[in-house]
Amino acid sequence: MKYTIEFLFWFVGLVLFQVLLLNHIQIAGVINPFLYIYFIIALPIHTNRISLIFTGFLLGLVIDMFSNTWGIHAMATTFIAFLRPYMFRIVATQEELDKVMPRLKTMGANYVKYIVLMVFIHHLLLFTLEAFTFKYFWVIILKALVSALITILLIFTLEKVRK
Known about the structure:
The chain has one domain (about 1-160). Helix content is about 75%, strand content about 0%. The chain has helices at about 1-20, 40, 50-65, 70-90, 95, 105, 110-130, 135-160. Helix 3 (about 50-65) runs antiparallel to helix 4 (about 70-90), helix 4 runs antiparallel to helix 7 and helix 7 (about 110-130) crosses helix 8.
């Protein structure tokens, strides 16, 4: 019950922070931070796969409703929710997989790899869906890299505050 209330708080807080502040930040038409994906990234390691995918879809759908986009956030967030267990198997050791929560203090450098992969995949898919063409391939890559870097910095700042 304690985790349910805590995660509900994080869900609402991250959605509000995203739609009220971060959605209005666009620097040079390239930088768009999407901190709301931290919710999917920070869920317990052994979260039920169906619950994880449903939560990813719901989170993306809520962001889409507030952002007036047509499912691109839902698609990108559902995709990273689907990939999340595989990412853990790729970057984490068995000892780290036995932990309850993915955190920098419990996983160390592997947590950094996990965050970088998840954020970059999310941003690359999101900006590709937004453009819906490969005509602007290099612009999509640039937006994904720069926005992912800013989002990663925000996630690590949030991790420091969350301690």
